[in-house]
């Protein structure tokens, strides 16, 4: 028997329509690329998104067409998210930290017809625009007075384009399976792969991540996504924020410790989200300047593992609740988030930290299992670990142009992460499959070793990579970026690790470096480190 409910498609435009109608005065506050602070309410954001949809219609953009962005987190990028997807076109966000050849690859692969760019990224698009096969125009996210000189002919000014249009636009109704946005995975090897989100998946993901146990969004909250809008839809925050009337603070181009701190405090932000590398800068700034966080209540640390020392610093030194999170571009992207279940809140601090170091429990809409390398399910006992597989309505079923990818088997998506799951449902990432160190037929978790090393006061950042070994296959090499003014000593570090990890896990050597190569989404590039140290000879070999 079929239910008798209305067949209303789940469309991205409905999130904005709802936010504008019910929470029209809830603010979007942005640091503009020029530096000034801009603020308006969701009602005005809605009107301008309608103007943008009219402008795109005039440019000939139709249902299913792809439109690119290379832009910071600002209100204009927010308008593009909704103006483009709302009219049934596909908003293709590109990561400006990628190489120009990769940008060109993505423009061509996606068949982008127009691209919106912040002034910062004009030199990047100038290098490739002339070669992009389907590109008809470049739109600069600024006003007439700030329009830059460029080698690109007929550069379009965003404010001219938008302000010339009527605010009256009826968001069209179409099939909820219509693609809404497109984001290419950072692809450390080979070409980036396109993850094509649908309107339906985006709405379901928004509903799921807004929940108390995930982002806890409502008009009582104020959220600042440090995570860029070009990294997996800023973890879905712009959509979920407008849906719930949450005040949204956009940091623009200033992601340094001071810039982030100012926005967090001045705008009374209660919740923020980003990768550990950003939080390292914020912590350093606050410690140097003796600052405290007056309003921030919660922080999501995800994208790479949050170390125990970082969790401790935020919770104990700055009194901010840490929610460790895990996800993937392919998952819209939230896959797990760590909130402590009520009985866990009274545990001794160390035991609580043990749990908080895990990546957490899946939100509604994500199912997880772990398997051995033959695909047999492993128990959720917190001990067994294996390949992590996921399924659900906002997880990709294939990549653009590679619909039958080998990442999908029996309806499950293989994350390429190795994890354990405990009886309470808390998942812990052991490692990425390709980063795990295989020593004498056993596995060593690089994440675990890094986490332990980062507990040493002389260590700012740690990365562990496997180095070829004639007897053991691979052995761990610990690379360290020192804390400000410290000179870590190898024996001291190894002595510190000795009683904290299994004896055979102890790194064979420790090397201090000035910095790590950081990828486009703020993660340490292990493949580059492996390349740098490929001829490294371990002691005694
Ligand atoms: P991306 O699609 O670029 O966001 O990368 C997704 C990958 O980042 C995952 O498959 C994990 O390997 C890694 N990742 C994300 N969050 C975490 C986390 N909290 N701890 C460890 N690895 C993470």
What can you tell me about this protein's structure?
The protein has helices at residues 12-22, 42-58, 75-86, 100-110, 122-128, 158-163, 199-209, 237-244, 257-266, 276-289, 308-317, 349-356, 446-453, 490-498, 526-532; strands spanning 27-31, 37-41, 66-70, 90-93, 112-117, 137-140, 156-157, 179-184, 194-198, 222-225, 247-250, 271-274, 298-301, 321-327, 334-337, 367-371, 385-391, 408-409, 412-421, 427-432, 437-439, 442-444, 459-469, 473-482, 509-512. The chain has an eight-stranded mixed sheet with strand order 2-1-11-10-12-13-14-15, sandwiched between helices. Strands 7-6-5-3-4-8-9 form a seven-stranded mixed sheet, sandwiched between helices. Strands 16, 17, 18, 19 and 20 form a five-stranded antiparallel sheet that branches. It is of the alpha/beta class and 541 residues long. Helix 1 (12-22) runs parallel beside helix 8 (237-244). The protein starts with 11 loop residues before the first helix and ends in a 9-residue tail after the last helix. The model has no long low-confidence stretch (mean pLDDT 96). The longest helix has 17 residues, at 42-58. Among the domains are: 12-203, Rossmann fold, CATH 3.40.50.12780; 365-432, Luciferase, domain 3; 437-532, ANL, C-terminal domain (GMP Synthetase, Chain A, domain 3, 2-Layer Sandwich), CATH 3.30.300.30. It binds adenosine monophosphate. Residues 185-186, 232, 302-305, 324-329, 333, 359, 415, 417, 429, 432, 521 line the site of adenosine monophosphate (AMP).
């Amino acid at each position: 028997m079929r239910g008798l409910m209305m067949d209303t498609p789940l469309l991205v435009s409905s999130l904005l329509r709802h936010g504008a109608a019910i929470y029209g005065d809830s603010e979007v506050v942005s640091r503009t690329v020029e530096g000034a602070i801009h603020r308006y309410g969701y009602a005005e954001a809605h009107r301008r998104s309608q103007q943008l949809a009219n402008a795109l219609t005039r440019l000939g953009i139709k249902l299913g067409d792809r439109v690119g962005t290379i832009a910071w987190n600002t209100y204009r990028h927010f308008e593009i998210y909704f103006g483009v997807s709302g009219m049934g076109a596909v908003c293709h966000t590109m990561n400006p930290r990628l190489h120009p050849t990769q940008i060109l690859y993505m423009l061509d692969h996606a068949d982008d017809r127009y691209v919106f760019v912040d002034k910062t990224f004009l030199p990047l698009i100038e290098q490739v625009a002339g070669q992009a096969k389907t590109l008809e125009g470049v739109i600069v996210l600024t006003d007439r007075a700030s329009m830059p000189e460029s080698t690109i002919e007929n550069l379009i000014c965003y404010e001219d384009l938008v302000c010339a249009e009527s605010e009256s636009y009826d968001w069209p109704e179409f099939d909820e399976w219509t693609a809404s946005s497109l984001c290419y995975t950072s692809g450390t090897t080979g070409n980036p792969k396109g993850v094509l989100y649908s309107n339906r998946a985006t709405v379901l993901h928004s509903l799921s991540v807004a929940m108390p146990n995930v982002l806890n969004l409502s008009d009582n909250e104020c959220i600042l996504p440090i995570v860029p809008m070009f990294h997996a839809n800023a973890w879905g925050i712009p959509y979920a924020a407008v849906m719930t009337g949450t005040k949204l603070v956009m940091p623009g181009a200033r992601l340094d410790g001071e810039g982030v701190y100012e926005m967090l405090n001045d705008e009374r932000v209660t919740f923020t989200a980003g990768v550990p590398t950003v939080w390292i800068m914020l912590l350093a700034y606050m410690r140097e300047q003796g600052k405290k966080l007056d309003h921030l209540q919660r922080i999501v640390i995800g994208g790479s593992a949050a170390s125990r020392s970082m969790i401790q610093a935020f919770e104990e030194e700055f009194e901010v609740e840490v929610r460790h999170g895990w996800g993937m571009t392919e998952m819209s992207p939230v896959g797990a988030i760590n909130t402590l279940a009520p009985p866990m809140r009274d545990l001794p601090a160390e035991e609580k930290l043990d749990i908080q170091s895990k990546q957490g429990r899946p939100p509604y809409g994500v199912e997880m299992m772990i398997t051995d390398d033959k695909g047999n399910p492993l128990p959720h006992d917190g001990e067994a670990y294996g390949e992590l597989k996921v399924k659900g309505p906002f997880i990709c079923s294939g990549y653009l142009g590679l619909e039958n990818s080998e990442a999908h088997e029996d309806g499950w998506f293989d994350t390429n992460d190795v994890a354990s799951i405990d009886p309470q449902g808390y998942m812990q990432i052991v490692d990425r499959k390709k980063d795990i160190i295989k020593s004498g037929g056993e596995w060593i978790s690089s994440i675990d070793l890094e986490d332990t090393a980062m507990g040493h006061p002389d260590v700012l950042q740690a990365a562990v990579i496997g180095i070829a070994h004639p007897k053991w296959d691979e052995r761990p090499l610990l690379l360290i970026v020192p804390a400000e003014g410290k000179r870590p000593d190898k024996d001291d570090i190894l002595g510190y690790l000795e009683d904290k990890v299994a004896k055979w896990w102890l790194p064979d050597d420790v090397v201090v470096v000035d910095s790590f190569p950081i990828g486009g989404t703020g993660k340490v590039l292990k493949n580059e480190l492996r390349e740098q140290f490929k001829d490294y000879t371990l002691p005694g070999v």
